[in-house]
Amino acid sequence: MNPSDLIRKAIVRIGNLDAYTDLRIARRKPVWLPTTMEALEADERTLGFALPASLKALYTEVGNGGLGPGYGLIGMSEGSPDDTSRTAPEIYASFREPGHSKWLWEWPTGLLPICHWGCGIYSCIDCTTPAYPMRLFDPNVLSLEYALSDEGCSFDKWICDWVDGVDLWERASNAESLR
Fold it and tell me: Which of the four, 76, 122, 140, 153, has the lowest number of CB atoms within 10 Å?
């Protein structure tokens, strides 16, 4: 699905929902106003990697976070924060800090948290490859081998599945329990 088709489907889905996210928090956390391409390009320069075209289209045409799976997509700079009041670039920067938290490993370059599920669990885009695969991060384990799992699809498939009504948390948590 091209980004424009995705945007149209997302807008239709959001318009037909009583909430903008799976966790029904539309009244407390609305979809943020769209950001500009210039702001996204500045974020990409700061992060050091490119975002998928479909994610950029969502941020510039629909809203800078606050909609989507889980507690909603986490916005880029000046966008919808997660429950710790941080945007995606801020979360990424904090995870990349040396000696971050209890982890005994370094946060992977290019792995951007974009969706918070609660309990510190995030869906992340691996921006080091043009396929933009999704990874689930669960901080409740110390080993990188178990903390990061493959969600089995690209960002485009992941967000298209959500637009089509797939419960992404159920799919991810089932896959995680099989590890």
Answer: 140
Q: What is the DSSP letter of 62?
A: I
Contact 179, 149 (CB under 8 A): yes
What is this structure's pTM? 0.85
Name the average pLDDT for the chain.
82
> CATH number for the domain including 85?
3.40.1580.10
What residues contact residue 114 under an 8 Å CB cut-off, 6+ apart? 55, 73, 74, 88, 122, 123, 124, 125
Which residues are paired to 138 by β-bridges? none
Question: Cα(13)–Cα(162) distance, rounded to whole angstroms?
Answer: 9
What is the residue type of 7?
Answer: I
108 closest CA partner among 47, 157, 153:
47
